[in-house]
Amino acid sequence: MVEQFMQGVVTLFQPEVLLFLFLGTIIATVIGVIPVLGGAVGMTLLLPFVFGMDAAVALPFLLAIQAVSYTGGSVTAVLLNIPGTLPNAATCLDGYPMTQKGEGGRAVGAAVTASAFGGIATVPLALLMIPVVIPFVLKCKAPEMLLIIVVGLCFLAVLTKGSVLKGLISAALGILLSTIGWQTITGVGRFTFGVVYLYDGLSLIDVVLALFAVPAILELAAKRQTIAPIDAKSLKEFSQLVKGARDVLQYWWLWLRSSVLGYVIGIIPGIGSLTSTFLAYSIAKQSSKNADKFGTGQIEGVIAPESANNSKEAGSLLTTMAFGIPGSGVMAIMLAAFIMLGIQPGPSMLIQHTDLCVTMLAGLAVANVIAGIMVFFGAPYIIKITRVSHVYLFAIIVPIIFVGAFVWNEALLDVFALLILGVIGVCISRFGFSQASMLLGFVLGSLFEYYLWHSLDAYGNLFFLSPISLVLICIIVGVLSQDAIRRLFIRWYRRRKEKTA
Amino acid sequence: MKIKPVSYFLIIIILIAVVAVSYGVTLPTMKAKLVPIITAGLTIILAGIELIRELRAGYKAKSAAEAEAGKYAGGTKSELFGYIKGWGWMALLAVGIYLFGFLIAIPIFVFTYLKLNKRGWLMSICITVVMELFIYGVFARLLQVDLYPGLIFGGTLW
Question: Which A residues in the span 421-440 are in contact with B, Cβ-Cβ below 8 Å?
C-alpha cells in the first residue's frame, strides 16, 4: 500500500503529467470565467483530446479542469455578480457588494486564497481515507453493488430542481439508452431495428457531448449576448489582493470549518456543490458577530463559500473512485472518462489502481496551487474573457464538438447521432430534467443489468436481505421520501404554530 | 387550459417508452427483456404522473399564464428561433462534413458563420486559419486520427 502511494506521488511529478496538469489548470481557469460553460462542459469538450492518452496523464488533466474552474468562477462572481460556475453563486452575495464598495480586489484575493487552500487542505484527508474505505468496499458483493448504483441514481435524481420525478425519469431514460445494442450477457441485439450502426450501442462520448456541450452552446447562440456587460469593473490595486489573502489567514477557523464541511458534503453522493457553498455561507452567517451585515459586503461571506467550493472535490472524487457513484453531475462525466480510458470505477479501481487514485488526488492539490497563483496574479486579465462574443464561441466550439464525436470510433454516423441526441439533450436541459441523472443512468446501465442478473443467479430472488443491502434500501427509501417528509413536517409545524397563536 | 411545452415532451417520452415496452416483449430471453421492460414501464408511470401534475399546474395557472403570455411570448419565441437556427448551423456542418470531410467543411463553416454574423474580414480569416491548424495539428497529426475525408473523396459512414 505504501509503495503504491509513493508510486502515485512519483507519477504526478513526471514532466508529462505536470505539463498537462498545468495546461488543464489554465484551460479550467478560462472556462470557469465563462458562465455558460463551467467545469462540466469544459470537461466534456476536452474528453476527445484525452483519446489514446495514458490514464495517469489524462485523468489529473480532466480533474484539474473541473476542480479549478470554481477558482476562475469566483472572479466573475465577485466583480461582475455573475457566478462563473453554479456554486460560485453564494460568493456573489457578499463578493459583489464588496466590489460596489470599492473592495473588489480584496474580495477576489480572499476568494482565490480560500479556494486554493480549501482545495489543497482536504486532499490529505481524502488520501488518509483510502485505507479506511478499502475494507468496506471489499465487503460489497453483487447485491450491494446493485443497490449502491440505485442509491447513486436516487441521490442525483433528488438533486433535480423542482421535481424528483423528472430526475428519476432522466435516470430511467439513461438506463433505457444503455440497453441499445448487443447485450453482453446473452448476445441478443436490442433496439437496433436492423440498423448495423446501433449494434455496438450508442457512443458514450456522443451522449456526454449531447447532454452537456450541445445544450450549452445552443443556449449561447439562442440568447445572442456577450457574457458580461462591457463596462464591467476590473481590478486596480495589487495590495487589495494581498489584503484579501491576509483576511483568510485571519479567519483561519472559518476557512478550516468551511473546508471540512465542503469535504464531507463532497463524500455524500448527490448532495451537490451548491448545497455545500450555501450551507457554508449560512453557517458562517449564523456564527458571525456581524450576522446582520451579511449580504452587504462581509469578507466572511466570501471566505466561507469559496473554502467549501474546492474542498468538496476531494471528497466527491473519493466516492466516485471507491464506489463508482459520482458525487455530482460533473463526477458523472469523470466516471465516463474512467470508462473511456479503460478503467472500471468501483471497488476494483481503489484496489488495482491505488497509485492512480493517489496521483489524481495529489494532482488535485497541485492544480489548486497553480490555479491559485494564476488567478491571483492574472485576475485583471482573466476578467476580459467574459467579453468574448457568443459568435466566436459558437464558431470555435461547434467544430470541436463534432470532431470530438467522431474521434472515438472514427465513424461519421456518430456525428449524426450527436445531432439527434443533441435535441434530446436540449429538451432535457430546457424542461428541467436532469442531464447528470441521464448520463449516470447511461453509464451505469450495463453495470446495473450485470449486477442484477449476477445477484439473482447467485443469491436468488431474496438477494437484498444482507445487512448492508437492507441499510442501502433504507437509504434509498429515505432519499426518495425526504421531500414528502419535509413537506409533512412543515405542514405540521405551521398547524402547531397556528394553534399556539 | 394552456399546455406547456414540457407536457408535449413528456408525451413524447411516454410514447417512446411504450414503443420500448412493446419491442422489449418481443425479445427472445427473459435476461434480454427484463431491464428494458422494467425501465420503460417505470418511465411510463413516472412520466404519466409528471404529465398529470404539469397539466393540473397549467390548469390552475391558466389566468396567470394568460396575463403573463404577452410579456414572455416574444422572448420565448426568439429564443426558440435561436435554438433552431443554432441547430440548423450544426446540421449544415454535419452535412458539409459528410460531403467534403472535416478539413474542408470546418473552415467553410467557421468563416461563413463569422461573416454572416457581421464579423470583420481579418478576424474571420484569422480564426478560420487558426481553427484549421488546430484541428489538423491536434487531431490529424498529434493524435493520428484519420479524419473523415468526405463522401466525394471516398469516405464511408462507419
Answer: 422-423, 426-427, 431-432
Cβ A347 vs Cβ A140: under 8 Å: yes
In a domain, A471, yes or no: no
- Tens of pLDDT, residue by residue over B77-111, are 788 888 999 999 999 999 999 999 999 999 999 99
- Residues B82, B53: one domain? no
Number of A/B CB contacts below 8 angstroms equals 171
Q: In angstroms, rounded to a whole number, what is the distance separating the alpha carbons of residues A207 and A173?
A: 12
The three cell numbers of residue A21 are 496538469
| Cα atoms in the Cβ-side hemisphere of radius 13 Å centred on A238 | 3
Q: Given an 8 Å threshold on Cβ–Cβ distance, is A410 in contact with B5?
A: no
A399 touches chain B (CB under 8 A): yes
CB-based burial of residue A78 (10 Å sphere; 0-12 exposed, 13-18 middle, 19+ buried)?
Answer: buried
Query: Is A258:A284 a contact under the CB 8 Å cutoff?
Result: yes
Task: Tell me which residue range forms the domain holding B81.
Answer: 72-158
- 8 A C-beta contact, residue A28 and residue A85: no
Buried b (16+ CB within 10 A) or exposed e, B3-39: eeebbebbeebbebbeebbebbeebeeebbbbbbbbb
Q: Can you tell me whether residue A189 is helix, strand or coil?
A: strand
Q: pLDDT tens for residues A250-277?
A: 999 999 988 888 888 777 765 556 677 8
Backbone Cα Rg of chain B: 24
Nearest Cβ partner for A452 among B35, B106, B156 = B35
**Whether residues B157 and B87 fall in one domain:** yes
d(CA A78, CA A298): 12
The beta-carbon neighbor of A183 closest among B32, B42, B79 is B32
Q: Which residues pair with A182 in a beta bridge?
A: A189
The answer to whether the predicted template modeling score (pTM) of the entire model surpasses 0.95 is no
Domain check: are B78 and B115 in the same one? yes
* ipTM of the modeled complex: 0.88
